[in-house]
Amino acid sequence: MAKSWKEWEKPLLEIDEALAKAKEIARKSPPDEQAAAEERIAYYEQRRDNIIRVMYSRLGAWEKVLVARAETRPYALDYINALCTEFVELGGDRRYGDDHAIVGGTAFFNGRPVMVVGQQKGRNIQERQYRNFAMAKPEGYRKAIRLFEMADRFGLPIISLVDTPAADPGVESESRGISEAIAASILAMFEVRVPSVAVVIGEGGSGGAIGIAASNRVLMLEHSVYSVIPPEGCAAILWRQPSEGAKAASALRLTAQSALELGLIDQILEEPFGGAHRDWDKATAIVGEGISEALAGLDGLSAEALKEDRYQKFRRMGKIAES
Amino acid sequence: MAKSWKEWEKPLLEIDEALAKAKEIARKSPPDEQAAAEERIAYYEQRRDNIIRVMYSRLGAWEKVLVARAETRPYALDYINALCTEFVELGGDRRYGDDHAIVGGTAFFNGRPVMVVGQQKGRNIQERQYRNFAMAKPEGYRKAIRLFEMADRFGLPIISLVDTPAADPGVESESRGISEAIAASILAMFEVRVPSVAVVIGEGGSGGAIGIAASNRVLMLEHSVYSVIPPEGCAAILWRQPSEGAKAASALRLTAQSALELGLIDQILEEPFGGAHRDWDKATAIVGEGISEALAGLDGLSAEALKEDRYQKFRRMGKIAES
Amino acid sequence: MLGKSKGTGLDGSFVQCAGCKKTLFKREFEDNLYVCPQCGHHHRLTWQQRVALTFDDGSFQELDSALRSGDPLEFPEYREKLEAAMAKTGMNDSVVAGVATIDGAHVSTAIADFSFMGGSMGSVAGEKITRTLERAAEDQKPAIIFCASGGARMQEGLLSLMQMAKTTAAVAKCREAGAPYIAVFTDPTMAGVLASYASIADVILAEPKALVGFAGARVSAQAQVTKVPDDFQKAEFGERSGMLDKIVERRALKQTLSSLVRVLGGGVR
Amino acid sequence: MLGKSKGTGLDGSFVQCAGCKKTLFKREFEDNLYVCPQCGHHHRLTWQQRVALTFDDGSFQELDSALRSGDPLEFPEYREKLEAAMAKTGMNDSVVAGVATIDGAHVSTAIADFSFMGGSMGSVAGEKITRTLERAAEDQKPAIIFCASGGARMQEGLLSLMQMAKTTAAVAKCREAGAPYIAVFTDPTMAGVLASYASIADVILAEPKALVGFAGARVSAQAQVTKVPDDFQKAEFGERSGMLDKIVERRALKQTLSSLVRVLGGGVR
Ligand SMILES: [Zn+2]
Ligand SMILES: [Zn+2]
């Protein structure tokens, strides 16, 4: 079982490389060798597609974790930029600071005014630090609350893009009330009188995720994950071995497919062939369509109906036996 | 013109001392000298009352400032303890900290459940530091907001006791948004659907004061002051001399009497003979009665009527000419 | 949990304080509401002890007692752990819900008991908390919830996480209905419980030195090089950080709750 | 204010930047919206310049222009100062109010001009801000307020302080009516203005390096020994502290305001 994304993706990267080389050769080949070059390219492409088919047709829970965390996947701002026009990023919690792990602002989505909030990862070391690995601090959730309330005031649907390993667990976050901030953000999401849609685009990491995901509709990308605890953390507690993450991932049932079976999400958005990271254009379009449809399904509901829909949706969650 | 409270109060303190001595002598005198001793006491008491009458009948604006700041005056908690039962102090802004410059909590006032909020000065160096000289930081106003909102939720009348030189002007307060906190607190006071009464019991220091004083009824103790800027600060700006505080106090018209004339407060609560600081029992009783009457005057008003009353009250404030 | 009975000749008439480790007279310890007379350590209570110390005698009526977990994920060893916890505690899950009176005033209440799987919140605990808050909202009476939990229950996976949303939604219902909600943080109040219904109560009281925090102390310390205060993740730290209203000694808790219930429940809307 | 005209042979065709002190071509400076092309310093604008840069040509209609102060306290030298300010600026007080369109969308607006007694807020400024917000609430259209003020106007004493409450009450009216309110902090936005209607706008934009603070920098520094950051009380400090949404360069301000007006004004309630 692959421990890391790199290890797991290796066969695919190798074929990608071979394919790139074949294309380079084709570019440099004289006209009379073009046919052979093209053939070679076609061969590699077919092999690549076969590999993808094999790898992605039997993704275990742990592989889903790896894919969901892949650094090549589109992040929140990639979706926002692809799907929205006139995005005006709004910042600040009006209390303490501005948290770059959560981005948000107003925009037009399909020409309709909306409020977008998302957890934002970084692609390189500087960005990752700037974004704190998408682990939001209290001020991030308080910014989100402010935007949710603004959306409520002006009748803007709320779109949440969920992608965080967890909320920030540091001492400073604790001292400024990370727990209160998450709880208050969930509360605000239940109190708004506007439609809300959340999409788990990568990692749905426990309290950090639900803090912006208590929405009327919750969608998950096919290879995203959603979990009460990071599998490594679960393994550390249960078996005192963080390395047993794969075992824990499977026990936790953290895949989109399990979440749907358990009745905890509304829909799975199928990713492009080979995953969202292999085709951003398609991935963003798919997410856009998912949000569109979800919003359309909420159109015409009154403020009260939207609130009640949200309440009943989460009210039902849980599996209980009576003795 | 007296520069300080000590200097100004000196004649009175001297007679208080003489009176105390006379009483001590009387206590030790044999029976046959009692009559003479009593006479001496009566003499001093009369002299003291004359002095008080003279001093307090012609209090200028600056003397009002001195009296309002007197360290012997009852402070917010003194009023709360005298007027309320079952006071449960509530703390924390749920954001950053708990500010001891503002105290607040639930209690019964005349047997009626209420929310009380007040600025609290300290009587000695330790207390003054603990209370930050009643100069509230952002977390103080955010605690107040939380209590105002709680009062709103549960239908509790709000009693504010105003006594601050100013909001805390430090770098930390600035960085956590002291301006926002004050503004948001005023906003919250306009949004609540319950009756509210504010009493300026000492110093009503500019933004720091109005932050908890946007109430349906605003009362001032006879010798309290209410000002847009501390007179020393005004003098420093206008005449580059903080020592010209007396001149500025008079120009600023910061007395309760001026505030009433300008239509900015509802009522002046007459202080006991010689000021609130000379008779706490009477002072607290007078304030209690003032609050009682003010609340009674608001009884039966609907939530909307209370909000509108508050809006119209402050809406009218201002003196404008049309050209 | 409770100071352990110390096997002495006086058959259980002594206990050892979990705080200062001193040996105490059991009778004196109980009379002192399970607070060490030496060091003030507030020992954890069973839900029955909490009921006895808080509510009017005989007023507590348990509700929803039949709810039990169904091991929805077939999580390794979960069933065994549940059965062991049931056998040990006589409870069906970590939270007991019901109604009671306090100085005559009716309240809806829930009490978490740490001795059942660390007070963890799965579907059953979440459901009971939700019903407790819904009852308060419906009857417009105050809710009092005693928290004691390590957090969400891992073994029910995402179902447990969703209890955070569900219970928080129920708090929203309470707010809308104007029903006061008072939370009491007892040792420990952590993670998924703290980050949901616990932290957004109208009034939050805490017992002295109760552990109150989001992340395990180890995680927090790893995550940052910041100096960690001595009382980090203690109620005292939470109070200083503005996250709760008041630390109340156990002896004063009933009176404080009683005042709050009568004041917050006595307003005019 | 604006870069000063420099007396050269080219009769006023050069100005000096108030930031870097460099000499600039007046034409280039104006074309650059009074932002120094060398150092980026955003010079203060008169209200007329602000109107020209923000609203659709000819769409601004001034309202409430007849309001003027009556010197209610007979404050020393106030009348003289007012008259001097009127003569200098041609304004009746520090705020100009009206209605306008931005990319065709109707807004209620007020613009403070620092050149009139430091943009200070007395009864007249407070009244105009209040009416601006009331108009927005009544017509359910967005309000845009450009702030530029040293704070409350001392010379009207407690009346000025009460403008803080009055204007804040008007913000409450806007919120209730669902009318968006956008504030723009320009240099400087201070004290009684910052601590009332300015800080509680739905969206707050700021011009780069605008002074934004509660207390005079001297007071703040005296009050504490804390190290003062280099950009203390600058818009950048405010942004980092979470007190405003976005610092926007003047060249992008109209477009940003236009987007916000259309988004916030275009929701469905
Ligand atoms: Zn002990
Ligand atoms: Zn320059």
Structure at a glance:
Chain A is α/β, with parallel strands linked by helices.
Descriptive overview:
The complex is a heterotetramer, with two copies of chain A (323 residues) and two copies of chain C (269 residues). By secondary structure, chain A is α/β, with parallel strands linked by helices. Chain A has two domains: 5-58; 66-315, Alpha-Beta Complex (2-enoyl-CoA Hydratase, Chain A, domain 1), CATH 3.90.226. Chain A is built from 14 helices and nine strands. Chain A has helices spanning 5-28, 34-57, 61-68, 76-83, 125-130, 138-154, 171-175, 178-191, 206-210, 231-239, 245-252, 256-261, 280-298, 303-315; strands at 84-89, 102-109, 112-119, 158-164, 196-205, 217-221, 225-227, 267-269, 320-322. In chain A, strands 1, 2, 3, 4, 5, 6, 7 and 8 form an eight-stranded mixed sheet that branches. In chain A, strand 5 (196-205), helix 9 and strand 6 form a beta-alpha-beta unit. In chain A, helix 1 (5-28) packs antiparallel against helix 2, helix 3 (61-68) crosses helix 11 (245-252) and helix 4 packs across helix 13 (280-298). The longest helix of chain A is centred in the first third of the chain and has 24 residues, at 5-28. Chain A is globular and about 70 Å long. By secondary structure, chain C is an alpha/beta fold. Chain C folds into two domains: 1-43, no CATH class; 45-264, 2-enoyl-CoA Hydratase, Chain A, domain 1, CATH 3.90.226. Chain C has helices spanning 26-31, 47-54, 78-89, 123-139, 157-177, 191-194, 217-223, 235-240, 250-264, and strands at 4-5, 14-16, 23-25, 61-63, 67-69, 95-102, 105-112, 143-149, 181-190, 203-206, 212-213, 246-247. In chain C, the strands form two sheets. In chain C, strands 4, 6, 7, 8, 9, 10, 11 and 12 form an eight-stranded mixed sheet that branches. The radius of gyration of chain C is 18 Å and the shape is globular. Chains in contact: A-B, A-C, A-D, B-C, B-D. The interface between A and C is large, with 54 and 62 residues. One zinc ion binds at residues 17, 19-20, 22, 36, 38-39, 41 of chain C.
